Amino acid sequence: MFNILTTAIKGAIISFTVFLIAILALMWVPQLWGWQSFRVTSSSMAPYIRPNNIIVVQPVESSELRTGDIITYQQPGFNTETHRIVEIADGMFYTQGDAVPDATPAAIEYQWIIGRVVFQVPLGGFW
């Protein structure tokens, strides 16, 4: 009985360690390619992106951005935000959070865009 319990505990510790290493790798390895990771703190993009998820953002040229892309940006004097592009016009990218469809889209200049969200780690912000 004791051997079974010891084996189960060792298995759980190994599984947890592998899981933790995988989460850390998903958050930090992309930085080798110039990508950045961010912890989501608001629910403005729910349900697609939820608070405490980690998002990984890839730098992108303005010509590669399309309506529907989710981008992370930082306007001067404001916090970093992540929203969906709802319109592109006259060199401006108009963004809006999925959870606030009635809000007026924000006009974002390309120079403020950090990049496009390429993947996320659900609840990775808890680690």
Essential attributes:
127 residues, alpha+beta, seven-stranded antiparallel β-sheet, 21% helix
Q: Structural class of the helix and strand makeup?
A: alpha+beta
From N to C, what is the helix and strand string?
HEEEEEEE
State the helical fraction.
10-25%
Q: Strand-residue fraction?
A: 25-35%
Compute the average pLDDT: 87
Shape: elongated
Main beta-sheet annotation: 7 strands, antiparallel
Report the strand count: 7
Q: How many helices in DSSP terms?
A: 1
Oligomer: single chain
Which stretches are low in confidence, meaning pLDDT under 50 for 5 or more residues running?
A: none
Radius of gyration of CA atoms, rounded to a whole number: 19 Å
The separation of the N and C termini measures 34 Å
Strand order of the largest sheet: 1-2-7-3-4-5-6
Write structural notes for this entry.
The chain has 127 residues and is of the alpha+beta class. The chain has one helix at 2-28; strands at 36-39, 54-58, 70-73, 81-89, 92-96, 106-109, 113-121. Strands 1-2-7-3-4-5-6 form a 7-stranded antiparallel sheet. A hairpin with a 7-residue loop joins strand 3 and strand 4. The longest helix has 27 residues, at 2-28. 18% of the residues are buried.
